Write the structure tokens for this entry.
Amino acid sequence: MGTLKDSWPVAELDAVRRLRVIARSTPGAGFAEDLVDAPFDQVWALASDLENQLPVMITDIRSFTVTSAAGEQLEARARSPLGLRARFDVVLRPGWCLMQSRFVLGGMAAVAEGDGTRFAFFGALRLPGAGPAERALHPLMSALGARALRRFTDQLARPGGG
């Protein structure tokens, strides 16, 4: 008799599909993805430079500083233009980044696809008791996610590609 893993009819999900599942199961989340005309290594080298990229992609972040790292587990501090601060727990590995603070959940994922890279960005606010407001947040978060993705892909399109 085979193991449960051998008989369970569930496919392995790549990083972008996994992030899409997290986004769709997170109330009020925004998600955006695109096929980028750049190789995976170039895309992920740029995306995984969190301290420099997150303030470019997300205008509500003035600075993002990694304060400790142990393998793929990082801690970071984000600061907004208004001086608000948040501590983030981060999982960062090739093609996958998931970040979580007390009030924010976000991530990026990338997989090679043909000669390019499928890249995805996701963000959500974690507001206690926000139940009814979550439907209203979804379009706002989707627009912010699309803008962050566009800011990222615009960098890859520049001469020198990031």
About this structure: The beta strands are 30-36, 63-70, 73-79, 85-93, 96-100, 104-113, 116-125. The helical segments are 4-7, 15-24, 40-47, 50-57, 133-157.
